[in-house]
């Protein structure tokens, strides 16, 4: 019997893990599929468009030819004038005059554009030009941005759980170290005696009648009535807890004996997992300074790796670019030469945006608490003091 029950327990454990991970994997997979579909759509629409040379492009070429013709042989005399005229002329130029759309709207370029759309970064160096592409971009963002925020909220629960558990473990370790330093030999022995006394209280393995429990506790007769009633009440609570625990175990056995009911209960648990999205993020309570340190270290790691393929960026420029990206500001002043390599950092971007989102959430909670304190302080100052009249 033991050999047959172990594989069944292993299968049940695997099913529980699968259904627990299913909501998170479902959201991430949906976002990946949405990004790939958008990349295929925009690469087809914007990449295959025809470039029509307008009248502005003809005037640009005429002015450029005029400036180059009027140059004298001595460049030192007209160098400053030439620079100013060329600079003004190039400001009137459009990028589409000199770039083939297929070179920009490749699959990876379109995928990078889709990521900047639903993450609300929007660098501005790649944008749709055709009217159909603009309409589809608005529709794509309308559904993609909520999906992205759903993924961020879901992953925020995981990160919030990890951060809170790590922080609590660190606080427990810190308290143990401080207690071991402050604890002397005599006080430790007294503490062990108190623990042993506390553990030697009433332990009920089965829901016995309360009178039998009272008869087995002779120490209750020697205590005052007030303390005796309190211990009787505690024993009643322990007995009720044990009874409910046994009933719960019986119900679990009953569910496991029927596959149809067990399947229905599994699906209800999966639905409950969907309903719990965002709950752990609301319970997170860690110092805001810790989140700032985590953000700094997280961005510094990427800033040290990014210049390996983006040779024009140093550590400071890469740090600035990563910060602008993770905060979804996206000025577009720093452009990447190899954006498809940066796509491999898509998981890094999502996790980084989540860390920044958690930091903003904590900062928002601290600001709300500060506003409450200020308003309550001002309210107490403005309230008139009560006068006490003699009787």
Automatic annotation (TrEMBL):
<dbReference type="GO" id="GO:0030322">
    <property type="term" value="P:stabilization of membrane potential"/>
</dbReference>
<feature type="transmembrane region" description="Helical">
    <location>
        <begin position="318"/>
        <end position="336"/>
    </location>
</feature>
<feature type="transmembrane region" description="Helical">
    <location>
        <begin position="21"/>
        <end position="45"/>
    </location>
</feature>
<dbReference type="InterPro" id="IPR003280">
    <property type="entry name" value="2pore_dom_K_chnl"/>
</dbReference>
<feature type="transmembrane region" description="Helical">
    <location>
        <begin position="135"/>
        <end position="153"/>
    </location>
</feature>
<keyword id="KW-0813">Transport</keyword>
<keyword id="KW-0630">Potassium</keyword>
<feature type="domain" description="Potassium channel">
    <location>
        <begin position="103"/>
        <end position="159"/>
    </location>
</feature>
<dbReference type="GO" id="GO:0015271">
    <property type="term" value="F:outward rectifier potassium channel activity"/>
</dbReference>
<protein>
    <submittedName>
        <fullName>KCNKI protein</fullName>
    </submittedName>
</protein>
<keyword id="KW-0406">Ion transport</keyword>
<keyword id="KW-0812">Transmembrane</keyword>
<dbReference type="Pfam" id="PF07885">
    <property type="entry name" value="Ion_trans_2"/>
</dbReference>
<feature type="transmembrane region" description="Helical">
    <location>
        <begin position="342"/>
        <end position="363"/>
    </location>
</feature>
<dbReference type="GO" id="GO:0005886">
    <property type="term" value="C:plasma membrane"/>
</dbReference>
<comment type="similarity">
    <text>Belongs to the two pore domain potassium channel (TC 1.A.1.8) family.</text>
</comment>
<feature type="transmembrane region" description="Helical">
    <location>
        <begin position="104"/>
        <end position="123"/>
    </location>
</feature>
<feature type="transmembrane region" description="Helical">
    <location>
        <begin position="286"/>
        <end position="306"/>
    </location>
</feature>
<dbReference type="GO" id="GO:0022841">
    <property type="term" value="F:potassium ion leak channel activity"/>
</dbReference>
<feature type="domain" description="Potassium channel">
    <location>
        <begin position="293"/>
        <end position="364"/>
    </location>
</feature>
<keyword id="KW-0407">Ion channel</keyword>
<keyword id="KW-1133">Transmembrane helix</keyword>
<dbReference type="InterPro" id="IPR013099">
    <property type="entry name" value="K_chnl_dom"/>
</dbReference>
<keyword id="KW-0472">Membrane</keyword>
């Amino acid at each position: 019997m033991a050999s047959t029950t172990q594989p069944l327990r292993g299968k049940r454990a695997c099913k529980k893990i699968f259904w627990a991970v299913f909501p998170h994997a479902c959201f991430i997979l949906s976002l990946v599929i949405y990004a790939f579909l958008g990349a295929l759509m925009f690469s087809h629409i914007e990449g295959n468009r025809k470039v029509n040379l307008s009248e502005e492009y003809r005037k640009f070429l005429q002015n450029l030819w005029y400036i180059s013709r009027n140059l004298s042989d001595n460049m030192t005399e007209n160098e400053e004038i030439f620079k100013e005229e060329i600079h003004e002329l190039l400001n009137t130029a459009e990028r589409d005059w000199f770039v083939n759309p297929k070179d920009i709207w490749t699959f990876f370029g379109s995928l990078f554009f889709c990521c900047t759309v639903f993450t609300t970064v929007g660098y501005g160096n790649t944008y749709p030009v055709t009217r159909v592409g603009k309409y589809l971009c608005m529709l794509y963002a309308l559904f993609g941005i909520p999906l992205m925020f759903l993924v961020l909220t879901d992953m925020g629960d995981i990160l919030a759980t990890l951060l809170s558990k790590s922080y609590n473990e660190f606080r427990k370790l810190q308290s143990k170290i401080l207690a071991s330093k402050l604890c002397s030999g005599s006080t430790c022995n007294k503490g062990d005696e108190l623990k042993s006394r506390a553990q030697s209280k009433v332990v009920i393995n089965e829901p016995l009648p309360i009178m039998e429990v009272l008869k087995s506790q002779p120490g209750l007769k020697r205590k005052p009535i007030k303390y005796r009633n309190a211990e009787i009440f505690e024993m009643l609570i322990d007995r009720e807890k044990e009874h409910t625990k046994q009933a719960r175990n019986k119900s679990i056995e009953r569910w496991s004996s029927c596959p149809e009911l067990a399947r229905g209960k599994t699906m209800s648990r999966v639905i409950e997992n969907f309903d719990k999205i965002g709950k752990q993020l609301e319970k997170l309570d860690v110092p805001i300074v810790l989140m700032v340190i985590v953000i700094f270290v997280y961005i510094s790691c990427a800033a040290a790796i990014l210049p390996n393929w983006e040779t024009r960026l140093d550590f400071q420029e890469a740090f600035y670019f990563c910060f602008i990206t993770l905060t979804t500001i996206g000025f577009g002043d720093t452009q990447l030469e190899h954006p498809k390599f940066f796509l491999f950092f898509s998981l890094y971007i999502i996790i980084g945006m989540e860390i920044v989102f958690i930091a903003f959430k904590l900062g928002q909670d601290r600001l709300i608490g500060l506003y409450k304190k200020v308003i309550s302080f001002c309210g107490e100052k403005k309230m008139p003091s009560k006068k006490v009249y003699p009787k």
